[in-house]
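go over whats below:
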Amino acid sequence: MGYCCRRMSKRERSNTLDNMVSHVVAAQQEGIRTVRSCNSCDFSSDPDVCICLVTWNMNGRVSYEDLVELVGSKRKFDLLVVGLQEAPRKSISRMLQATLAETHVLLGKAIMQSVQLYVFGSKDSELYTKELKVDKQSVGGLGGLIGRKKGAVAIHINFRGIRMVFISCHLSAHAHNVEERNSQCRHISHSLFTKSKHWNPYAPPAQLTVWLGDLNYRLQGIDNQPARKLIGKDLQAMLIGKDQLLQEAERGEIFSGYCEGTLKFKPTYKYDVGSSDYDTSHKVRVPSWTDRILFKIEDADKIKAILRSYESVDGIESSDHKPVKAHLCLKLNPNQDQ
């Protein structure tokens, strides 16, 4: 019959068990799944919600012109979510509302000093909005005294029947603080919306969770000049394997089950302010993808997501970071109960 049966040795049985355990651990540690972006929503009908997501470490500076470029003129989205870090002591809310006055209205905001989050909706969006809640979580340190508060702010919103949570965060800096950033991610994730006196432990979970911010993970295992040479040749894709965020997620430390677009754009930090040249200070930091947008769908059978774009906004030069934008479209499955 072609079968070959024999008794396994003790060592073989041990190796087989080890392999089974390894496969189980690998399945539990999903890591961050890279998804390709497409130019159109591949749904059989129009999407229920299209969301423009923006994150930007402002380095304490802002201009109206930068905000106009940040949000763009082609606003074909239902929601605009703007996460800011190191925001200046100005009314960013008023400036954004003035920028978007013709097309969108402010639905909610969450502010913890320099870490900020704004959700805007199209003119009629208030008709479809309910259960809007905000929260914040500091992760300590004295950064708030110099406009560099660390922690996260969040908004929970039910929009068009889809429960969503958006989190704008700023984590600890420096390449060696990987474990500290991991710990901060876990602390923020476990703390938001769980300590309020109005928290309902039996409430259904969010169907979409988005983290956007200066997560501050760096490139590891490559020196400055080799990294810059690859970027100069538009070969930054060869640096993805050096990215701390993806490495830690693959180890199962953080962001299990989350998705991210392909890192086709150049590392977004650190630039000389007023230019698109990488850091020429005495520190000459290794360029890194510190600024990221990650998303997670709770139940793929009930809701489908398509990432239309994931890119940096290289024309803005007022900060040492480049902003990052994503366009995400969602479609509910009408055959599934919510």
